[in-house]
Amino acid sequence: MKKQSDNNPNNPGNPSDACQDRRQTGFLDFLNRKVEEYNQPAFIKDDPISVPHMFSSKADIEIAGLFAAVFAWGNRTTIINKSKELMRLMDNSPHEFVLHHKDSDLKTLLSFKHRTFNATDLLYFIDFLHNHFKNHDSLEPAFLKGFSPTDKDTTGALNGFYTYFFGGTDVPQRTRKHIAAPFRHSSCKRISMYLRWMVRNDKKGVDFGLWTGISPAQLVCPIDLHVARVAYRFGILHRQQIDWQAALELTSCLRNYDPEDPVKYDFALFALGVVEKF
């Protein structure tokens, strides 16, 4: 088994060969078993995806999911609690709130803070969502601005969303750090996770499958230190810098295992890294 120290970015070997080699071992069976183990409704309650699962309407799910994904760094319990706190401040009706709030309603948001996300960021998010939902009944079009159905992956979708999200005239510079984009050399872990939630539709009850403009085959696997550690250990990731190129490399490997739904393996890699401390 390849050690992380063997993964020299200047001499990475052929990641595709490593993926193919793994198909000849028990590794793929192991990975598929882990997907089945964690891609279950029981997974929901301890994960930020539990926040959009509080709602039944499409727009509420989309808005709650966006905030939960943006908040998703650090302790998962804290992420969930802070997301639920924000939903309560929005009267547990996020779509209604962003569309029809009054200026006086915004005062209740001024004390909200989660790590580096503060009231300035929140008010900009609310303003963006208000303007978007005045003209659309879903957030999906926001992710299709720079996307083509023939794209191999979601690079264009994420770059387009970033440009659209910050297309206003009074954008707080501090808020830009809360929406990642490939052209900014981010891993885009949280926004890729959000797309997984919205796009994958495997009827397992975890991901929502609300959107059809992007296919599961085009999704990119969310990657962070935990997922990368597991991927290095299995020899299915070689790039040392955890950025968008690493996410694309890992996803390219996972497509060898399931070209139609490579990101289902996020359940296995995430759980092995975060839950099982693999």
Task: Give the gist of this structure.
This protein is an all-alpha fold and 278 residues long. The chain contains 12 helices and no strands.
Question: Mind explaining what this structure looks like?
Answer:
- By secondary structure, the protein is mostly helical.
- 46% of the residues lie in helices and 0% in strands.
- The chain contains twelve helices and no strands.
- It has helices spanning 15-23, 27-38, 58-70, 76-89, 94-100, 103-106, 119-133, 155-165, 189-199, 225-234, 244-255, 266-275.
- Helix 1 runs parallel beside helix 11 (244-255).
- It is globular, with a radius of gyration of 19 Å.
- 42% of the residues are buried.
- Residues 1-13 have low confidence and may be disordered.
Biggest sheet details: none
Mean pLDDT: 92
- How far is the first residue's CA from the last residue's CA? 14 Å
Beta-strand percent range = under 5%
Radius of gyration, in Å, reads 19 Å
Structural class: mainly alpha
Tally of DSSP β-strands:
0
Based on Cα principal axes, name the global outline: globular
Q: What fraction, in percent, of the residue positions are helical?
A: 40-55%
Outline the low-pLDDT stretches. Answer: 1-13
Order of helices and strands: HHHHHHHHHHHH
Number of helices: 12
